[in-house]
Amino acid sequence: MSEGLDVKAGSRSAVTMGALAVVFVAGTAWGWSRVTEPFPEKVEAAPCTDTLVPEGDDVAPPQVMVTVLNGGGANGLAGDTMDKLAGFGFVQGDLGDVDPDGPVAAQVWSADPDDPAALLLASYLGPDVDVVDQPSGYPGVTIVVGKRFKGVVEGNPTVTARSDAHVCMPPLSSGPDDVS
């Protein structure tokens, strides 16, 4: 009778060892696949986030990202304009050039001409500026400066939203109440 127990115990040990071997091989294969899997692609963060500014809330320069395009002015006009706007607290977006047949002074491009960020930015571009209903595809609010642009002036410290509006705010801005 003890022989029967040994055969039964031996077959149970063999089945157990076989099952453990299968688990070991499967675990090793899974672990190898995880170790050799390529790292995920780096995802670029959006330069600004579309943020609701309720009617009556103020928008200040640190909440506005600006892209400046040279529309036929002197070389370096876009960079100089960006530097001066950054000195007033605006957040730097992109720099570039557009067709020299563009504006002769300054334009603010916005999909919403009542956008408080666009109106705030326009106040820093002097009296000869137009807010144009034109989306640009650039981050933030886009301005185009041309040959007759007189330069950046001190504008309004804030602009109050006349109605609910969406403003593309830079990541460090916490929202409409952040006017520091």
Keywords summarizing the entry:
single chain; 180 residues; alpha/beta; 5-stranded mixed β-sheet; 3 helices; 29% helix; disordered C terminus
Structure explained in plain terms:
It is a single chain. This protein is of the alpha/beta class and 180 residues long. The protein has three helices and nine strands; from the N terminus they run H-E-E-E-H-E-E-H-E-E-E-E. It has helices at 2-36, 77-87, 116-122, and strands spanning 49-53, 58-59, 65-70, 91-97, 106-110, 129-133, 141-145, 159-160, 165-169. The strands form three sheets. The chain has a five-stranded mixed sheet with strand order 4-3-7-5-6, with helices on one face. The N and C termini lie far apart (90 Å). The relative contact order is 0.23. Mean pLDDT is 84; it is low at 173-180.
